[in-house]
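Long-time lurker, first post. I've been practising inverse folding by hand and with some scripts of my own, and I keep getting stuck on stretches where the structure tokens seem ambiguous. Below is the full token string for one chain I'm working on. Before anyone asks, I'm not after the true native sequence, just a reasonable design that respects the backbone. If someone could post their per-position residues I'd love to compare against what I wrote down in my notebook.
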């Protein structure tokens, strides 16, 4: 987790509806949009929390009253930090509120557009504001956009136990169907995909097995999974040891205390793609159990391959000395400890499996007070979850249309080196080095290359590539691959490879050329392997994990795909990639070389009072809706 809210994780349930004949820029879009709806659910740190208590803050003129903004009110965070923390932190064991203050998620669109509204803080904390503006520009009615926020501090089981969240989400789908007569489109970002996955599993316990698939077909038309940490994110481990400040001027130790009190802090823990939760493989969690919990079972690949499918070991940590033997948490770790000399610091390394099963936290339990709490949360809220162990690989959900979208080719953290800092808890660990993946290599913060298993590409600055691209396993044995420039283009530099062989469990690496100055989108599409279902993976060059939801490139592709899906005259399974022209006035600009508006087929010069430069007067032609027929 990074300080600029990179770990924002959102599944929103937006219900967006267009009239049967919608008008945009004076033109008409042909198609039955009256039944189109969608669902958005806000995720980690991307929904406002408001106070539900009266709290007097001593030595500060700012108190907390009911409905006061808590997350995110930077003024109170700075001037009344102790009070603010009381309203933010939860009991790490039972996930209850502080006795003096409780917070609850806000509701409505205002809860998700800007976390801290204001002239300066608003743009810095903007999440879904640009998305809402895009929807309005394309004719989506105000009463058709629904946000369903939730308390992103809670684990999935606590969301249902305290707030009946998944019951309410089910009702939202059913209300949308009854209101509009058609299924919804789910748009999920980062942790929101984990929320949606849990909902699908929870739904199996609420609906008769014979009616489950029919319910999904009736209520969900398409699922857009954006920036999904399908195998977790290593930045979660960093936050548990040294804290994540979310860009706020708070000490890292304080941020660590707050983050580790959230039950959701372990929801994004990295885990092995080779381990399931049917049988026992960890002595640590199997010894002395009285209840039957979901326990991992790993296949042979976990032990034959290094690093649990990740590029390198996730944590390398110095243990100051041996205090006692640890006979209960695995033979591998016991062998490591047996080589340690008393009083001599020894470095231990842990892969994704050893973090997800608790071996790592057990190893540092004598040196870190948080480990006991984290072990409790891991066992109780995740491995012991009655619906699903979220720290297991996700098979393709049985939905008609799935689009997995993520950014690639950014420098992304994949491993850390920690050592004792000599300071008291919670500042007792210091990060000594970081391992990054970038352009097919692994290197440290100091620039040294290291050995490992780097992927063909790197991640999106927050989630590693192997975790993002795990959804390629959802594609079938034959895949069509298309690579196009992200910007508007007339068909140049478009590369298409059809019926590419795909071995399940292996990455698909297209043999295509790249111009070093061009950012591309690579589409992997399969509409044949599963009858009646489509699966697509979009890789967007240099798309940042947080900002991808505000990307006009993503919104353009999303809109065209949805428009193509609904159009009665569509001629292909997916929208064509052969050409991309401007769709909005903002996409038009002045071509000084030709002394006219660029993209003359789409744009024209049309001055409006208040325009201050030529490019501002370039606008989409009133007949641009007719040009969309080229995308059918």
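-- Answer (accepted) --
I ran through it position by position. Result:
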């Amino acid at each position: 987790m990074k300080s600029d809210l990179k770990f924002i994780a959102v599944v929103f349930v937006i219900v967006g509806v267009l009239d049967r004949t919608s008008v945009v820029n004076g033109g008409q879009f042909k198609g039955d949009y009256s039944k189109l709806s969608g669902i958005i659910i806000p995720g980690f740190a991307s929904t406002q929390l408001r106070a539900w208590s009266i709290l007097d803050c001593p030595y500060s003129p700012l108190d907390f009253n009911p409905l006061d903004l808590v997350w995110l009110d930077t003024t109170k965070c700075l001037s009344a930090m102790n009070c603010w923390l009381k309203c933010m932190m939860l009991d790490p064991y039972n996930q209850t509120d502080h006795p003096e203050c409780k917070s609850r998620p806000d509701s409505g669109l205002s809860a998700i557009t800007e976390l801290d509204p204001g002239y300066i803080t608003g743009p810095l904390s903007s999440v879904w504001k640009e998305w809402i503006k895009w929807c309005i520009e394309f004719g989506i009615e105000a009463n058709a956009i629904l946000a369903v926020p939730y308390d992103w501090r809670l684990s999935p089981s606590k969301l249902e136990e305290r707030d009946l969240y998944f019951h309410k989400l089910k009702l939202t789908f059913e209300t949308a169907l009854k209101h509009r007569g058609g299924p919804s489109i789910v748009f999920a970002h980062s942790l929101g995909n984990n929320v949606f996955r849990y909902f699908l599993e929870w739904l199996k316990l609420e609906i008769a097995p014979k009616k489950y698939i029919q319910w999904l077909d009736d209520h969900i038309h398409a699922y857009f999974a954006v920036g999904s940490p399908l195998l977790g994110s290593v930045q979660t481990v960093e936050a548990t040891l040294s804290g994540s400040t979310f860009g706020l001027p708070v000490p890292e130790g304080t941020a660590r205390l707050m983050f580790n009190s959230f039950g959701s802090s372990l929801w994004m823990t990295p885990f092995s793609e080779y381990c399931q939760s049917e049988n026992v493989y960890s002595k640590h969690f199997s010894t002395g159990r009285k209840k039957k919990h979901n326990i991992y079972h790993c296949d042979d690949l976990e032990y034959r391959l290094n690093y649990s499918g990740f590029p390198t070991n996730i944590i390398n940590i110095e243990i100051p000395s041996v205090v006692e033997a640890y006979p209960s948490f695995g033979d591998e770790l016991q062998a490591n400890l047996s080589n340690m000399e008393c009083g001599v610091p020894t470095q231990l390394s842990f892969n994704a499996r050893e973090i997800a099963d608790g071996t790592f936290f057990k190893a540092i339990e004598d040196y870190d007070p948080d480990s006991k709490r984290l072990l409790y949360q891991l066992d109780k809220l995740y491995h012991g979850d009655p619906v699903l162990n979220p720290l297991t690989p996700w098979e393709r959900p049985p939905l008609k249309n799935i689009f997995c979208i993520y950014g690639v080719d950014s420098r992304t953290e994949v491993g850390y080196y920690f050592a004792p800092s000599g300071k008291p808890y919670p500042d007792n660990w210091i990060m000594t080095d970081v391992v990054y993946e970038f352009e097919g290599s692994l290197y440290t913060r100091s620039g040294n290359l290291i050995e490992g298993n780097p992927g063909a590409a790197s991640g999106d600055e927050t989630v590693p590539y192997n975790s993002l691209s795990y959804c390629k396993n959802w594609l079938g044995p034959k895949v069509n691959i298309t690579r196009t420039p992200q910007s508007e283009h007339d068909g140049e530099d478009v590369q298409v490879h059809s019926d590419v062989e795909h071995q399940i469990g292996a990455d698909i690496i297209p043999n295509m050329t790249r111009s070093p100055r061009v950012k591309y989108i690579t589409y992997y599409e399969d509409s044949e392997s599963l009858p009646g279902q489509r699966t697509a993976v979009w890789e967007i060059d240099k798309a940042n994990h947080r900002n991808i939801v505000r990307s006009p490139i993503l919104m353009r592709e999303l809109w065209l795909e949805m428009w193509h899906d609904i159009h009665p005259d569509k001629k292909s399974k997916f929208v064509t990639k052969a050409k991309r022209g401007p769709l909005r006035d903002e996409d038009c600009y002045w071509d000084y070389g030709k002394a006219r508006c660029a993209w003359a087929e789409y744009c024209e010069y049309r001055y409006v009072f208040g325009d201050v430069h030529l490019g501002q007067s370039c606008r989409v032609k009133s007949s641009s809706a007719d040009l969309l027929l080229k995308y059918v």
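A couple of notes from the structure itself: The CA atoms of residues 41 and 144 lie 15 Å apart. The radius of gyration is 25 Å. Happy to go over any region you disagree with.
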